[in-house]
């Protein structure tokens, strides 16, 4: 209830103090969910999350107060002072986990359960993204483009040598944030579309991983024995998150590259498209482990043959949407 309340307050407010209040409610609501397992790693993750979010919230409050001091405006859309714009960009980047403020996110996601990790990767990123969209006309284009390209590069590069699935999904999230940020100033609606589709695909993958109890590549290699149809569709959902046509994940990348080309930013579009190939490599490795291979050596994990565990309807619906939404792209073109 508090998570929904905090998110609603932030995305519907016009006043900086109300937006800050919503972010604080969100932070205080997610910390018990991260630490509820009472494991030392979970407590460490909750502490890291609290410290980074508290620092980001203080910066955001300082930014809005500085703007109000110089302009007399507390309205979110009236952010005009240059120092305030820079501080706000830094604060929101810390909250989202954009490069170079990404260090906390993989560690916190690794210390959380799959369900809490899903909330951290989707719902908790919505209020800061909404603030970025609302203040986009005031932000610095060079700074945002640099951070976006750095996020896409680092998300792909750091995900290559990971074996923990949650850390791989954390670096995947950082890489997708780069795609959302790079188009923010030119087409904010496209940023929101990318965010919605990212949430859809990530939710499908997290719920499928939670159902099959996959935590790393070793357990993923034996997961096909539990629910074979889910493992096959999980592979397609991972390839969709990678952005391969004709799956859903190709749609935002296609539209972003098209918009960047229209803005005569062909070199930037080429750079970020090439950097997404790094991410494609570890998505392909995950998909390969999920369905095709057996472990190359003796595994310590118990192999199970078809369990009685049933796949719930929300998972199947989310996976179907995360795979087959690309045919709706003409409708999106028609409305925009």
Automatic annotation (TrEMBL):
According to its UniProt record, what is one Pfam family this protein matches? NADH_dehy_S2_C
Q: Write out the GO cellular component annotations.
A: mitochondrial inner membrane
Q: Which UniProt keywords apply?
A: Electron transport, Membrane, Mitochondrion, Mitochondrion inner membrane, NAD, Respiratory chain, Translocase, Transmembrane, Transmembrane helix, Transport, Ubiquinone
Q: How does it sit in the membrane?
A: Multi-pass membrane protein
Q: What would you give as a GO molecular function for this chain, any one?
A: NADH dehydrogenase (ubiquinone) activity
InterPro entries from the entry? Complex_I_Subunit_2 (IPR050175), NADH_DH_su2_C (IPR010933), NADH_UbQ_OxRdtase_chain2 (IPR003917), ND/Mrp_TM (IPR001750)
Might you give the EC number(s) for this enzyme? 7.1.1.2
The reaction(s) this protein catalyses:
a ubiquinone + NADH + 5 H(+)(in) = a ubiquinol + NAD(+) + 4 H(+)(out)
Q: Which GO terms describe its biological process?
A: mitochondrial electron transport, NADH to ubiquinone
Keyword DNA-binding found = no
UniProt main location, coarse: mitochondrion
Provide the protein's localization.
Mitochondrion inner membrane
Where would you find the membrane-spanning parts of this chain?
15-34, 46-66, 86-105, 142-161, 168-186, 192-209, 230-248, 268-290, 311-333
Domain called NADH dehydrogenase subunit 2 C-terminal: residue spans: 280-333
PANTHER family, A to Z: NADH-UBIQUINONE OXIDOREDUCTASE CHAIN 2
Q: Tell me the protein family, please.
A: Belongs to the complex I subunit 2 family.
**Function text:** Core subunit of the mitochondrial membrane respiratory chain NADH dehydrogenase (Complex I) which catalyzes electron transfer from NADH through the respiratory chain, using ubiquinone as an electron acceptor. Essential for the catalytic activity and assembly of complex I.
Which named protein is this? NADH-ubiquinone oxidoreductase chain 2
Q: Which organism is it from?
A: Scytalopus speluncae
| Recorded name of the encoding gene | ND2
């Amino acid at each position: 209830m508090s998570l929904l309340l905090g998110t609603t307050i932030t995305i519907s407010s016009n006043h900086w103090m109300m937006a800050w209040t919503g972010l604080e409610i969100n932070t205080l609501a997610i910390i018990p969910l991260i630490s509820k397992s009472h494991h030392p790693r979970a407590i460490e993750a909750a502490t890291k999350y609290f410290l980074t979010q508290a620092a980001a919230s203080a910066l955001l409050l300082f930014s809005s107060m500085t703007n109000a001091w110089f302009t007399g405006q507390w309205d979110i859309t009236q952010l005009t002072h240059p120092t305030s714009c820079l501080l706000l960009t830094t604060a929101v980047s810390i909250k989202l986990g954009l490069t170079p403020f990404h260090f906390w996110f993989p560690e916190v996601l690794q210390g959380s359960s799959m369900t809490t990790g899903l909330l951290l990767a989707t719902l908790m990123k919505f209020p800061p993204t909404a603030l970025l969209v609302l203040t986009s006309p005031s932000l610095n284009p060079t700074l945002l483009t640099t951070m976006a390209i750095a996020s896409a590069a680092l998300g792909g590069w750091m995900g290559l040598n990971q074996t923990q699935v949650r850390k791989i999904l954390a670096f995947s999230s950082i890489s997708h944030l780069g795609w959302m940020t790079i188009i923010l100033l030119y087409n904010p609606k496209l940023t929101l579309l990318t965010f919605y589709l990212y949430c859809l695909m990530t939710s499908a993958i997290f719920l499928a991983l939670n159902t099959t109890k996959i935590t790393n590549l070793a357990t993923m290699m034996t997961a096909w024995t539990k629910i074979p149809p889910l493992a096959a569709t999980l592979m397609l959902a991972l390839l969709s998150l990678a952005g391969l046509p004709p799956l859903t994940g190709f749609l935002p990348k296609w539209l972003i590259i098209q918009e960047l080309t229209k803005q005569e930013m062909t070199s930037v579009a080429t750079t970020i498209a090439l950097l997404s190939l790094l991410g494609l490599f570890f998505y392909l490795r995950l998909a390969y482990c999920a369905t095709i291979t057996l472990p190359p050596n003796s595994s310590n994990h118990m192999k199970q043959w078809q369990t009685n565990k049933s796949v719930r309807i929300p998972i199947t619906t989310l996976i179907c949407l995360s795979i087959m939404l690309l045919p709706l792209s003409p409708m999106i073109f028609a409305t925009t």
